[in-house]
Amino acid sequence: MYMNFARFLGINVKSLALGVIVVMALAGGALAQDFQRPLYLTLADRPVPLDAFRVPRDRLATQDSHPFLFIGRVMDEARPRWSDFRRAIRTYPDVDPCLEEEQRGTAAPDLLAFDWNGIRYTTAIEVCLFRVFQSLREPELIEAWVLRQGFRTPGFDDYPSRGSDMRRILSASWTPEQYSAEVMADLLLRPIWDLLSIAHSYSVTVYIGDNAQVTNVGFGPISK
Asked: What is the C-alpha separation between 69 and 161, in angstroms, rounded?
């Protein structure tokens, strides 16, 4: 009786061991595929024609049609950070002043012509990025726009939020050298800035909610 039980137990142990080996092999293959998957999107992943970034004027986001949102809520006098954003919202009430001069006032401006060197300060960049992204509307166009600006990004991912309008998130980054070349290109103090900068990178973060509504945009340095 005990021999039969031992045999029975031995067969189960062997079967279990074989099962574990098979599962580990399958898992290893899946991990290997994930490891081989690129960490960042390339323009080849988002083959969007350049004409897609030329948006008709009646589709451009403005403060009246799409008020600037901060963490999913309209930024106005009742919000604690209104004093931080007031100047930017009033200076950049629509997409036009966010673009290079030759695109302003055109029937279908090229939203790739973002005036990084003219905007400069952080809250203004956030407001202008919000205007551009809300005008593009589609997540794939936003990803392609970010790539065209030279950012590295893995693309949009689900955002686990409760009780908020944030459903998906995109994070993208520039090197300090890219930031300096784009935002500070004509500053006489640029060499000193480059020398003293403590930023490891500069990040853009975009949150979108239901119906592809842009609910928050962040921009700023990430320290070393």
From this structure: 17
What is the pLDDT confidence band of residue 197, given thresholds at 50, 70 and 90? low
Domain count, the chain: 1
Q: Is 70 left (phi over 0), alpha (psi -120 to 50) or beta?
A: beta
Residue 60 lies in a domain: no
- Answer whether 0.85 is exceeded by the pTM: no
Q: How many angstroms separate the CA atoms of 149 and 145, rounded?
A: 6
Assess if residue 62 is contained within a domain: no
Q: Per the domain annotation, does 1 fall within a domain?
A: no
Domain membership flag for residue 31: no
Q: How far apart are CA 53 and CA 23, in angstroms?
A: 47
| Helix H or strand E segment including 217 | strand 214-223
**3-class DSSP assignment, residue 74:** strand
Domain limits for position 158 = 69-223
Residue 29's Cβ-count burial label (10 Å; 0-12, 13-18, 19+) is: exposed
- Tokens 């956030």 identify what position? 126
Question: What tens digit of pLDDT does each residue of 151-176 get?
Answer: 999 999 988 766 566 789 999 998 87
Element (H, E) at 168: strand 168-174
- Classify residue 65 by its DSSP letter: T
The enclosing H or E element of 110 equals none
